[in-house]
Amino acid sequence: MEIDDIFKRLEERKTLDPDLEDEILRVYGDRGRKAVQAVHERRIKKYRDFFVVVGASGEYVVDDEFCTCRDFLFRKGRCWHVLAIRIAALTGEFDAIDLWYQDTWIPDLPPDKHYLS
Question: Taking 60 as the threshold, does the pLDDT of residue 67 lie above it?
Answer without folding.
Answer: yes
